[in-house]
Amino acid sequence: MTNTEPKTEPTTEPRTTPVAGGRPTKQRLAVANVLSTFGDFRSAQEIHSLLTDSGEKVGLATVYRTLQLLADSGEVDVLRTEDGEAAYRRCSDSHHHHLVCRSCGATVEVEGPTVERWTKAIAAEHGYRDISHTLEIFGTCAACS
């Protein structure tokens, strides 16, 4: 996808703890460690290729299941590209949104206090509680303009 670094530095320490409440299998730990190595978004297929190229014996279905566990626990960001593909990366702990370049895929984490206020107001107007949301804004970055 890109080589853009997130606001938080990915850890290079090998992971030894359970993955999102799952059993810490060798394959799950390998997926989590690949995500810790790179700061950019990667597709499940790219992650699978990186693992198999490095000699790991891990199936694509295991990669998808592990990524879903990590996403459900909030340990990774999931971004849907304009063509609908899911891409994953380690994320910062705070709630944030993404600016994504259509040309090069560069991604920037941004905060959106106006968006946060709007989502709360629109939810309250319609009687919704316990809301959540995701937001990706696509455009062309300064380098590609």
Integer tally of domains: 1
Q: What structural class should be given to the helix and strand makeup?
A: alpha+beta
Give the termini distance in whole angstroms.
18 Å
CATH architecture: Orthogonal Bundle
Q: Return the CATH topology.
A: Arc Repressor Mutant, subunit A
Portion of residues in beta strands equals 15-25%
| Biggest beta-sheet profile | 3 strands, antiparallel
What Rg is obtained from the alpha carbons, in whole angstroms? 16 Å
Q: What is the number of helices? A: 4
Helix content: 25-40%
What does this structure look like?
The protein has one domain (26-139): Orthogonal Bundle (Arc Repressor Mutant, subunit A), CATH 1.10.10. Helix content is 33%, strand content 17%. Strands 1-3-2 form a 3-stranded antiparallel β-sheet. The chain has 145 residues and is an alpha+beta fold. A hairpin with a 5-residue loop joins strand 4 (97-101) and strand 5. It has helices at 26-37, 44-53, 60-72, 113-125, and strands at residues 42-43, 76-80, 86-90, 97-101, 107-110, 136-139. It is built from 4 helices and 6 strands.
